[in-house]
Design brief:
Elements lengths: L28 H4 L1 H15 L5 H17 L6 E9 L2 E7 L2 H15 L14 H12 L4 E8 L8
Antiparallel strand pairs: 1-2, 1-3
Helix pairs in contact: 2-3, 4-5
Length: 157
């Protein structure tokens, strides 16, 4: 699938978004492990004055190892889907390309009735439906997908 690039400047207008928000499950293990890591670090500090550090340092070490095993080695991208149509633009931040295609298909499905009758019913294959829809719209509508890096805040090489 080749996205169609829009030529206009992007502007964000205030208004009520359609539908319910989609909660992105980014599964960032560093943040999921922060509570355990913080608790282990507090135990080390609390035991520092008493000189009984062996058990708390082992707990801290174990917490670090568990988190390190789950941290992604490569940074992840967020897919920004921009759907442009005569009345405006829709923006979606998607956790992967599959989700962006799902969102685009939902838009196409919702607006399929606007196409000429000879086009027929919407194909169940999402990519086919998207291709037919935008071919029939003949440049009056477009979409764009951009991969944006998800910044983790970690120092990376």
């Amino acid at each position: 699938m080749r996205p169609v690039k829009t030529e206009a400047d992007l502007e964000v207008k205030e208004g009520n978004p359609e539908g319910s928000p989609f909660v992105m499950n980014m599964e960032v293990p560093v943040f999921k492990g922060c509570g355990k890591l913080m608790e282990a670090a507090k135990q080390v500090i609390a035991n520092w004055e008493h000189g009984d550090l062996a058990a708390t340092v082992r707990n801290l070490d174990q917490s670090i190892k568990e988190i390190e095993d789950n941290v992604y080695q490569k940074p992840r991208d967020v897919i920004l889907l921009i759907i442009e149509f005569p009345n405006g633009r829709n923006f979606f931040a998607c956790e992967d390309q599959e989700r962006a295609i799902d969102e685009l298909y939902e838009f196409v499905e919702k607006n399929w009735h606007e196409l000429p009758g000879e086009v027929g019913t919407i194909p169940s294959n999402k990519l086919d439906a998207i291709e037919i829809y935008y071919r029939e719209k003949d440049g009056k509508e477009s979409y764009e997908m951009q991969a944006l890096p998800l910044l983790s805040g970690r120092d990376e090489d």
